[in-house]
Design a protein that fits this description.
This protein has helices at about 15-30, 65-70, 75-80; strands at about 5-15, 35-40, 55-60, 85-95. The chain is an alpha+beta fold. It has one domain: Alpha-Beta Plaits (2-Layer Sandwich).
Length: about 100
């Protein structure tokens, strides 16, 4: 079975304190659905395209698990903390 990968590429972060509160609560939901952080911010080098202030990659056992996590009450409570404080692109992608 292929794993499910969350990729969140942030374009803008308005409030880092709000992001920290979101991340703390989101981590609980992600771990509940067996998600494992592969990338969580950190040093990056932009070779093409636009510089991103933050990229997060999370590996789940399956695409279904990744989707269940996103739609869970626990994650949606965390997501609601963000409101308009970030602009990001979030995708779930099936791994090879």
């Amino acid at each position: 079975m292929s794993k499910g990968i969350w990729i969140a590429v942030y374009e803008k972060i308005e409030n880092t304190e709000t992001l920290k509160k979101y991340a703390s609560k989101a981590t609980i939901a992600i771990e509940k659905y067996s998600g494992k952080f592969v990338v969580r911010g950190g040093k990056n080098i932009t070779l093409e395209g636009n510089q991103s202030p933050r990229t997060v990659i999370i590996e789940f056992p399956s695409v279904a698990d990744a989707e269940k996590c996103y739609n869970s009450n626990e994650y949606q409570e965390a997501h609601n903390i963000l409101k308009d404080s970030v602009k990001r692109n979030l995708q779930i992608i099936e791994s090879v």
